[in-house]
Predict the 3D structure of the following.
Amino acid sequence: MRGHPRRTITTAALIAASTLLSGCSGLQASSSDAELTVSTTTAIIADLVEQVGGDRVDATSIVPHHGDPHSYEPSPGDAAKVTEADIVFSNGLLLEEPGIMKMVHTNAQKSAPKIEIAEKLEEYGGTVMKLEEDLGLDVLWLGWAVEGEVAGDGSQVRTTATKLDGPGELRVYLTDTLGKPKVYVDSADGLDEADSFTLPPEAHTHVNWAFSEPGTYRLTVGGQTETLDGKTAEIGTGTFTFTVGDDTEAPEGTSVLDGGHADVALNAETGKVYVRADDDKSGEPARLAADGVVLNVPDRAKAAVPKEEPYSFLGKAGDPLWVLPQAVIGKHVHGDMDPHAWADVANAGAYVRRIEAELIKADPEGKATYEKNAAVYLKTLGALDEEVAKKLATVPEQNRKLITTHDAFGYLAKAYGMEIAGFVVPVPNQEPSAAEVEELGNTIREKKVPSVFLEPNLAARADVLRRVAEDEGVGICTIYGDSFDDKVDDYVSMMRHNATELAKCLGEDAR
């Protein structure tokens, strides 16, 4: 069953890294017969490029197998490879960690086309959909966002905390996939240019907001654009009010946000600073003037400073702390649209058609080869699409619910009649409470989920999900999202595995 109409899919360290990459499919060393040297951001895209390019291309991936494009930090070796590329393919839609794209724009030849495939996917017969995020937190889920376009490839917007009035200290930090904090703002030693971070245009990121004392805080932030050639321009300031603790009253005449998903937002075009909040009625984000809204941090957000040394910047271990959590662990910058479009096999066909067109532009003499290879592979994808749909059609209606470690399967669910029941990750640097563990168990029981799914490259994140699944006696299965591994190293194998695993783990006899 598909959710849309059927479509026809017509140094020593660097040496070691190079050796490792050369042993992976899609990451081979340069071929002397290749007409084009191609750099891609992910191994999935590298595989698609190789299917179309054949022997005429030498494709390498920046993010290695087992890597996460949302958080991978490129190395000098990655930059060196990009400088040799005749063309660079990325996914776009803010899938890639901003540092990857900055590295591409900084190091790639000016003459090399830089193609963000999914940005024009619909022109090649694909579909894109909005990214839906809802963890059901019982406190406000507050991030940072940049809206509005900025001229220049690789340009970014820097947001800086310039002033804080309040009874205690504010720390804004991100917890990476290994559980280590990266501090963006720390008022304890005063605020200066270091209390800042950058985001690409139209991007959003999750962070933790930690307050040391109850009371009212007023945080002033300012923004500036930054281009790759070092030029900057100021674009606006604004002040946001936080009420921390249940006994702190909001200023008269203001509205209070104490739940749902919201961002401290800066518009790079207008210079305005505001709160962007989800509107349940319209489904579109509401933009609220900073001076008219209060961001509430209630006592139910109260925690304690972790005992681990990396968190000592928050205060003495065990001291009280009021925290609006990052919720999604790891560095995860994204936009409004879901970038994981390849999870629908029909969309993979659109990727292939775009790659075919761009390779022909870069290498007109290879036109016949690219057209032939693309036609053959599109037939393979058409058969794969039918195979995936047929396998997933065997899953009983009541079992068509996915609980995963990562919100990467919306396209798969829509295309093949599944439902995203939730992506479950722990709140960073906090042990889940007994109530939270119980709630997850209740969700699994109420939805009668036969199995949960872990991505191999993100499995380390999912201790809570694994433990609760074991307690509830449900299956723990694997599903591939953003990355290959040593067992699955091409797109067809990945989607075939996913369909087989879903059919088996959600089937009639799964429990």
